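Structure ticket #2291
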Amino acid sequence: MRLSLTLSKYLSRHFLFWLVSVFLAFASIALVLDTVELMRRASGKAEATMDIVLQMGLLKLPFMIHSLLPFIILFGALLAFWRLARTNEVVVARAAGISVWQFLLPAVFITFVVGIFEVGGFNPFASAMLSKYEAYEAQYLKRRTSMLAVSKNGLWLRQADGRFQSVIHALRVTNESMELHDVIIFRFEGKDRFAERIDAEKARLENGHWRLQNAWISAPLTQPSFRKDHRIRTNLTLTKIQESFASPETMSSWDLPEFIRTMEAAGFSGHRHQLHFQSLLAYPFLLCAMVLIAASFTLRVHRRTGAKFAIIGSVLFCFIIYFMSDVVQALGMSATIPPALAAWAPACVSIMIGLAMLFHLEDG
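Resolution: structure written out below.
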């Protein structure tokens, strides 16, 4: 039997009602808990006023919604299907010749549309808000700022060594050994008094200093001097420089491909950003998997069966999937497996498990 338009609208409204209800509940709880945590971190910091803490909580909320959305879909689908099963509407629909696949079609379609909107529309907004949040966090809580910027014209670093403030530009870098090529260094005394400019063929980061090769040093009122081997002090380490990259979560899904190409052209690894981009592509399918899993545990529930067992079982099952996703993501971050495999594996495995359970439910 073909699913009627009237029934499709009814099921869609029912699913959307529970989805919005769970969304509002999760968003409210997340905002309150995160604001309390920010208040704890801000204690003892005079600059971090209550207004700043509240702004930071609101700025981080869109990113938290992105992280919680699979669970929002899961609980929304659980409540929607459980309610339909409790009122025997599922039994009536199946008696009218409607299969479980037709019954789930409106919920899966809505979920997939939500996933597409989240990745293409909501994610750029959440990334921009998270970027502002991290800027506030660096200024008021961590009291440090990023020291690295990467562009099509190379990369820029800045450092302070006690006496000098230095701005370093290089066209490309060897990431493994942190060796810069075609280097220009501008050094300033105090805040803005120009001290010297250094042009070097290469600069290698060593313990506590940059080692420059074939360096020309130009200073005001003096003749340029050449040094085959020259060193300047630094407080930078390879770890500090790598941590200064903008996190992939702060970048729009539309900007990630170009940024990955720019990073790789500059000599840095774009592995972490590739993993995040592939995870965004797989995100709508992961959300649909939550609907399938919720349906497989709740559509057979009625008044005389264990509703609590079904709901607890589905939640436990999804938490196991979430844990396994973290393990796969960690393998992807360490480059043990390709980024695409690490990003798509949780969604694909979840969909296959959900489909297998529904096939068993439908066909025995």
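Closing remark: The CA atoms of residues 85 and 91 lie 7 Å apart.
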